[in-house]
Specification:
InterPro entries: CarboxyPept-like_regulatory, LA_2272-like. This protein is mostly beta strands. It contains 6 helices and 43 strands.
């Protein structure tokens, strides 16, 4: 409620309370005779002079009465009421309160509607222009011209004047002030925009909300055309409610209004949000959204999102997001993201991320990812991951400066740590080892990762007659390079040993250190000590298989855990 309107309400209450006393004590100001002469003077100035002669002040809503309009007045000993009727055309009622005269719209004006209709033509060719938007900005009423260029607007008569605007893509905007209160037919001509004024078409990866698949499905062709025509007109309002796009308290102009509070029973199509918006099914916003946007199915935003955006199925932001984005299905951000993005199965950020991506299936960061990616199946960082990737199966990034934890970890280049069964770095650490140790005399192992941390896949067999043994396992290691050719490696491995029975696999855990020396470009020799931890439920082995422990040192008093020192030596290739 505006300040003027609040003042009107308060003064009307005073009028009700004080009117009897006013009638007893003073003459009505409306019956006072005045002398007033004015020629082409602003209405506000004339009212001030009238009030000064009558000994009172005027109170009125400046939206309903244009104080800058020019008027003429010649009154000699004429009652105030008669002068006002002549100046205001009978469109107002007069209410007295001590020291004030309040101007309110007359009942006939408040209930009156009038129509502005007519045709829109091209000024150069004279042909009718179809699909042009004709609208009144104060009342937010609009219409599209038909194939004959015809339009019709229904306007309230409570306002002193109306401003008719015509907008059409590829044409200059046209504005025409008209008198209000009675039906009128207009002939409007619009001028094609010069080439220099045409908006350049910028080809980017971003599209407008109307061109998303959700926009194409839920918005009519007329709504899309209206948005195209009115792409330079936006306004703000405190509250709106709609049932579907087009059935709104802002009429067909809802798509051009930024609201502070918005309720969409099924769905809404607005210019943006600066507060809170809730929809039963969907919200579509052309521009920026601030604070809170909630929808039962989906949200689509053409600009930035600052705050919380949540939907039952999906969120799509065509620019960036700073805040929290939550959905039961998928989230898509065409720009950057700072905050939290969480979904049921898919998150996608086309540019950089700073924060957390969490989903049940796949996360994708198209730019640099600073923070955490958590996924049930896979994380993909197309450029740089400077943080943590945790996935049930696969982690990938072009450049790693953080940590990857998953079954398979891939980094084109790595300055971080990959922890998984298979770790692949295209320009990282790749070595094939052939070696012997005190447990099995023929072993193969594959190291992959980088010098800071690499994974080890290994398998071995003992070929000595009557002492067969088969082992396979996994480990982690790190290397300290004193020179390009000379290094110290520290490794820990875990193996399963087959000693004649799959029902009685023994576990062998080894910690070993080795000095490694490169004797040629892709060949190195290594050797070093090891310490073994051996565990088995049944120490007896099958006939023809090797007996463990090799040197019995039971550290658990009969519970099957043994330790001993060992060795290894071999050759590393690549």
């Amino acid at each position: 409620m505006s300040d003027h309107l609040m003042n009107v309400v308060c003064r009307l209450l005073l009028l009700v309370l004080l009117a009897p006393a006013g009638r007893v004590c003073a003459q009505s100001v409306l019956t006072k005779d005045i002398v007033l002469h004015a020629e082409q003077r602003p209405l506000g100035e004339v009212l001030n002079r009238l009030g000064k002669q009558g000994g009172f002040y005027f109170s009125y809503n400046s939206i309903l009465l244009n104080a800058d309009s020019l008027v003429n007045c010649h009154a000699v000993h004429v009652p105030v009421k008669n002068v006002l009727d002549g100046l205001l055309g009978g469109r107002f009622e007069y209410h007295e309160t001590p020291g004030y005269l309040i101007l309110l719209p007359a009942a006939s004006v408040r209930e009156h509607w009038f129509y502005i209709s007519g045709y829109v033509t091209d000024k150069n060719s004279g042909s009718y222009v179809s699909g042009a938007s004709v609208y009144e900005t104060q009342q937010l009423v609009s219409a599209l011209t038909n194939d004959k260029g015809y339009f019709r607007l229904r306007l309230r008569g409570r306002y002193a004047a109306a401003t008719i605007n015509v907008s059409k893509d590829m044409y200059q905007d046209t504005v025409l002030p008209v008198a209000a209160g009675y039906d009128q037919q207009l002939q409007l001509s619009i001028v094609p925009a010069p080439v220099a004024e045409l908006t350049p078409v910028v080809v980017t990866k971003h599209v407008k909300v109307e061109k998303t698949w959700l926009g194409r499905f839920f918005l009519s062709s007329k709504q899309k055309m209206r948005s195209l025509n009115l792409n330079s007109f936006f306004t703000t309002k405190p509250v709106q409610m709609s049932i579907t796009p087009g059935l709104s308290t802002h009429n067909k102009m809802g798509s051009q209004v930024v609201n502070k509070a918005s309720l969409n029973i099924l769905g809404g199509y607005t210019a943006g949000l600066d507060g809170a918006e809730v929809a039963g099914l969907f919200n579509i916003s052309q521009r920026n959204v601030r604070y809170v946007q909630l929808a039962g199915l989906f949200n689509v935003v053409g600009g930035h999102v600052y705050g919380v955006q949540a939907a039952g199925f999906s969120n799509t932001v065509l620019d960036s997001l700073n805040g929290v984005q939550l959905s039961g299905g998928f989230n898509i951000i065409k720009g950057s993201m700072g905050g939290v993005q969480a979904s049921g199965y898919y998150n996608h950020v086309s540019s950089n991320t700073h924060g957390v991506q969490a989903t049940g299936i796949v996360n994708i960061a198209g730019g640099e990812a600073h923070g955490v990616q958590l996924a049930g199946i896979a994380n993909i960082g197309r450029r740089l991951v400077n943080g943590v990737q945790v996935a049930g199966i696969l982690n990938y990034t072009h450049k790693l400066k953080g940590v990857q934890i998953g079954l398979i970890n891939i980094a084109d280049t790595s300055r971080g740590y990959s922890i998984g069964l298979i770790n692949i770095s295209k320009v990282g650490y790749h070595q094939l080892l052939v070696y012997a140790n005190d447990v099995t005399n023929v072993n193969l192992a594959y190291r992959a990762g980088n010098k800071k941390l690499y994974s080890i896949l290994l398998a071995g067999i003992n070929t000595t007659a009557g002492k067969k043994a088969f082992g396979f396992g996994y480990g982690l290691g790190t290397g300290f390079y004193f020179t390009p050719a000379f290094a110290l490696t520290l490794e820990a491995t875990a193996q399963q040993l087959y000693l004649g029975s799959w029902n009685n696999l023994a576990q062998l855990y080894r910690a070993h250190a080795a000095l490694q020396y490169r004797i040629a470009k892709n060949i190195a020799l290594f050797a070093g000590p090891a310490y073994n931890f051996y565990h088995t439920e049944k120490p007896q082995t099958a006939e023809g298989y090797k007996y463990f422990p090799l040197r019995e040192h039971d550290i658990t008093n009969g519970k099957g855990l043994f330790t001993w020192t060992g060795w290894q030596f071999g050759i590393a290739l690549f």
